[in-house]
């Protein structure tokens, strides 16, 4: 008997129905209204943080020509990309599988006159085929930044500090940055005499922290016990400053290993000096899954999320695959995983209230004008009409006060002797945690629309 397909994911903290699973491809996301509002706010806060650091947003195409982008992609990623035929040219198109390669292509081929260093940020969706049993998404919402044209420890430190500040900006308090240098581990593999294929398999095992698998690979490659121990020991070296001295003991004075450790130490000392010591862990086995990384690399982890929130590192030779070498570093975060790390799916109520304008049908014009004035003032406003008699006008307004999204009800046409006035049923209990039972008796005032707007603005400014 075939097993049921995995549930289609949502950002609401719930799974979709079986019917929806049959309509939406596996691994794709539906972002429901409340979650969408939170995701957009999350992205806006991070883009604002990027901007404060001097990073400008770039918007990249969803499709790329395979033959153009392929130099920046490893073969496995090309294999797992979604491809279609361009009906105009007959060339093969890729649905974007990686943003960093796109930025490398854009900088090398289309930004020839810019001044460096270049600071770019983005929010984009990448698409990669993953087997259903792998438990991974095929549509990945990312937000990230790239620093291009700078090659020194301060550049590495800047991009990591930007990552940390962004996570703090959106409210993530418990997280760790795992910091390493791929040059150290790669050089150990080279010195151990592994074949090119063996090196690739060993790197993949290291990226997964799969020590038993790495041991099998080293044994199959007939690596000496001394070299195997050195590689396996390096993979498990993780901690604070003591890791550097332990790494130097493993390096045994070999120049390229020492250079990698020197760069790692310089970046680590910079982060410690600027107050991030408790956030950063050194990991000599840190090894990201993309082959274009060739220097400092890092991942970020948070409690309650079973995978890294994201990560990045230095890729000094990637842009050169498209025409010219430029030292570069950057990072990307999974918005989905960050969403879970922040527990945003547990928030069932929005943190901002709505104004509801209620009016009888014969007062539709007046109601529309009132709502328009409120919206022009930057106040989120919805409308509701009742039966022409208007007899149930206040009753409808009273029932609306139970809606958790409504904090102010504006009744138009309740007092025909004062058409320029509205009746305002105002409740600030939604923000203060007052029960729904207490909202059945909201405060009632009569005022002009001008005074209402001034009052709502003052209230919102006071709540910020």
Question: CATH topology of the domain at 354-463, what is it called?
Answer: Rossmann fold
The main sheet comes to: 9 strands, mixed
Mean residue pLDDT:
85
Gyration radius (Cα, Å) is: 28 Å
Number of helices: 17
Provide the low-confidence segments as ranges: 1-8, 429-439
SSE-based structural type: alpha/beta
Assign the CATH architecture of the domain at 354-463: 3-Layer(aba) Sandwich
| CATH superfamily placement of the domain at 354-463 | Anticodon-binding domain
Helix content: 25-40%
Shape: elongated
Separation of termini? 56 Å
Strand percentage lies at 15-25%
Q: Could you explain how this protein is built, in words?
A:
The protein has 464 residues and is an alpha/beta fold. The protein has a domain at 354-463: 3-Layer(aba) Sandwich (Rossmann fold), CATH 3.40.50.800. The chain contains 17 helices and 19 strands. It has a 9-stranded mixed β-sheet, sandwiched between helices. α14 links the parallel β15 (354-360) and β16. α2 packs antiparallel against α6 (153-169) and α7 packs antiparallel against α12 (255-273). The longest helix has 20 residues, at 33-52. The chain is elongated. The chain starts with 8 loop residues before the first strand and ends with a helix. The model is unreliable at 1-8 and 429-439 (pLDDT under 50).
